[in-house]
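fyi for ur records
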Amino acid sequence: MPNWADYILPAVVLLIVGIGVARKVPVFDAFVTGASKALKLVASIFPYLAAIFICIVLLRSSPMGEGLTALLSPPLTALGVPKELIQLFIIRPLSGAGSLAVLTDVYATYGVDSYVGRCASVLVGGSETVFYVLAVYFAGIKGRKLRYALPVALAVTLFSSLAACWLCKVM
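which gave:
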């Protein structure tokens, strides 16, 4: 029995090419033009992404990450965040893959159904990699003014993460 999902993407490509030919659009030239624009976009975004990834590696491999965790632990635990999730709280706005690695460690240590595991799941599922998204969006539009976007995004991430921990405790 054929797997119909294997035919969806080729069918969509053929449909697009067919519509382009019917409208007398030079399909290959349009494809090359689009690929050229995409390559320019990737080239403009790459420095921002490289800076974020370097910061993540430095944060995780240096004692600074542990120091930042120790510094933020008292106020965040007072606000209801389990101290086991402070590292996840720090990594999540920076890196999706890094936060998934921390989430996997939390699952292995505390279990999926524990309060810490549930809280970590909601925290990862309900928040975004703020710095990555802002770097991609602002590089794409060549915007340089993160003056309002960054503090608002970080504040929303903070409040949503606190709400996630509170809801996991209540439910």
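The radius of gyration is 22 Å. thats all i got for now
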